[in-house]
């Protein structure tokens, strides 16, 4: 995907390949992008104060040059709204010819940056600042173009546009206002129309409709002005007579913003098309080449444009030929149909730009900034861009973001919370919560908070920290000793993940509770209160409400009225198997069935229809597309079945559904032979064969047989925590975890003695307990 399949010097074989495979996708996509690009290019040029033809020149150069040389095969380049404010300021300060020279030099710097291979350095910029920069540009465009839409002229500053807007509204120029507002209404309504109608780009329809109405009604409006010949717009760039500092600042600003916008757009395109990967260094080279060419020809600066790029992807483009062809179509339009462009009302372009400007202020970006605690960065950056200028606003935003990052790195949040009442010995209870980075800089605050803890109280210190330096550790240890000596108790609960402080953790105390049982992180901690040891689930529920509920509630609110799980997950009732953990899934992802031995009774042969009912509901009502059967190592159910000593009760009645698995295994099932070759114990071999047998049973169910459902076999090895998948009659570790299993399954071979004991007449209950490390026979 990353390489062009056709260019001017493409070998005949590659050209024939493109014509046979991709042309039928690329050519229609290029036409769609062309129809989007023309009105946008005209509008952006008008908003920048540049010659209108400069927008079309940039569209042609961006499509052909950047499309052919860039590192993102599906990205479409051209004039972008994100540079409108910058270009407008440069034209006001230097004039158009000098602005063209700034574009040329900025392009040369982009070529240098690409050659130095620093393309990915642009990704280090805070996304919040980038989103706020675009939002500030959008607000600035809206404030300026509202005046044009109403029949007036845009001011030179945001404050001027704001202060003069009420007067503009009172002295309304009706024809222009109605044309501009009509364009906005049509663009807002366009996404809600039927798909067949939306196949035609909304901006094109809006501009054509506004032009047709204004012409048929013979309205007196300001319209686009073009030179008699398109080639007359080509102007050589000039250097300034002075102001070299401001000139250099303009080059720097244009280089940085054009590069960042292009690279972020390329990364966004990668997310839109699976398997597509951009070469960011080559993309800089392509963008630099396009800016050099555009500046020399009198065009606007060029960047990668996410609006056109996403349109290109959605239209089905396969190769970079689509972007190149779109530039060729714009060139033909510019040469052959220039007379049509001169009929377009400026108010229509203003309405288009007002709509584009509002689209740059995205509610999702604001919500994201708020959820990450960076809303103040977003708002300050927007205010700086609107009220000052683009460069100063971005620099202020970066400074605020950097200060916030440093504060989070060197500062800890410390607070005292009341406990749940007196403990069993009547002592007051308190919780001291420490979050962030606990360094020597936070010791004064830590000392002040610890001084608020009553003497003789039962205290839990919760360290939700990623770093704990020697000074903070020493202060906390000294305070703990003093508090305990005064009759109190202190439990230090380290919740932070593995890191540089792992060596300080007490033996047996696990640093994170996300995946591990309470019984495990409590191990080896003698100071855990007796109530916690006696009733851990109640205390665990309290812990959930304190720490987990607030995180999970947004997702649960989305699922409150319905569920749409990705898969039905059938596994054993063994307490050591946690489906959501081993599949990294959460609420709403899995429709789970658990029973002893992960068994599926054969349809119409059992009075117990619970499994079949769950499958029918999941496939028929929930639309589940994947069914997973997951077995596990050292399964007590398989051990008891293999020993044929499960007794006469309900367990024995249930385990009869595993008898087919035993017969298949003893008959030399391919999966059992492969497991034996890999060194698995006999119990584990049977458990693996059992997964395949239960998949066959599921396959025979009408609910599954008649639906397009994918059946997946999985196996969880408990000692190593490894998940294996069933591929070609063999269970193999998931990619990225192959080192988790030793070559000959040393741990599994140690369990062979269990099976040997069963064969020699060892009682089934004891054999099952041995195989499951003490778990009951039923699991």
From TrEMBL:
E.C. code: 4.2.1.1
Cofactor note: Binds 1 zinc ion per subunit.
Residues spanning the membrane: 27-47, 54-74, 94-116, 128-152, 172-190, 202-224, 244-267, 288-307, 327-356, 377-406
Superkingdom classification of source: Bacteria
Biological process, per Gene Ontology: carbon utilization; transmembrane transport
Molecular functions per Gene Ontology: carbonate dehydratase activity; zinc ion binding
Main EC class the enzyme belongs to: lyase
Cofactor: Zn(2+)
Catalytic reaction list: hydrogencarbonate + H(+) = CO2 + H2O
Keyword annotations: Lyase, Membrane, Metal-binding, Transmembrane, Transmembrane helix, Zinc
Pfam families: Pro_CA, Sulfate_transp
UniProt cross-references to SMART domains, sorted A to Z: Pro_CA (SM00947)
GO cellular component terms, semicolon-separated: membrane
Residues engaged in binding Zn(2+): 572, 574, 632, 635
Annotated stretches, region: Disordered: 734-754
UniProt-listed PROSITE patterns: PROK_CO2_ANHYDRASE_1, PROK_CO2_ANHYDRASE_2
SLC26A/SulP transporter domain ranges (all copies): 24-374
Localization: Membrane
Family the UniProt entry places it in: Belongs to the beta-class carbonic anhydrase family.
Function: Catalyzes the reversible hydration of carbon dioxide to form bicarbonate.
Descriptive protein name: carbonic anhydrase
